[in-house]
Predict the structure.
Amino acid sequence: MLASSAMTTAEAMTAPLSGIVTTKEDVQAFANACVLLRSRWQHFRILFEGSDLKRELLQTTAPTFFDDLNYLLTEHLVLHICRLTDNAQTMGRKNLTVKFLIEHSDFSATPDMLGKLKRIRASIDAFRQKILPARNRFISHLDLEAVRLDQPLGAVTDAEWNQFWLDLQDFLESMFQHHVGPSEHFCLNDIGMMSDADSLLTTLRNAKLFDAVMDDGEIASRALRAANTSKFAGDL
């Protein structure tokens, strides 16, 4: 009887906290939200991280637009990550988050996986705590004290960003195996074609090179003569 009671207690610790149980559709919907997040992070990384020459290219093309885009993408990334890592419930409504998926899944048959997921959740939450002040004081609200102090909030290192993406990938992989199928895999960081921002940079770079060519008067004159004789020079 004692052994039976102990097993029942252990099983209760790994069962969903309420009658709402995570489904494979929930896991897939959460994964889709993570793909969207990763895609927009790739946009940001390709456009705004890297060499001084890249920054000069953007600043000499459309400085106001790219400054605003940088700001918007930064805000979106912080807000989206905080949404995905919120509590399982706020104001009486369930949230599709890391915590919800863990708390409303039954791990009674796989307690080792629950332990792994709790460690991943702790690492993800540590990252969340770093960026949360930016969400709370500058994005969700315009906190007067934060405005007056005028200090940056939410900064994280490249290493911390890398760890967050690894943690999120491991979390999705475990959830897919648990809810979709033991042979299912979801490698978030290996999904290709998440951003085509590099084609924008190539086009802007080519435009700069074209301007440099056209600054040569002799080349420009020959180019204009060639263009004027093209069948596309007239009205379409």
Q: What stands out?
A: The radius of gyration is 25 Å. Residues 196-230 form one domain.
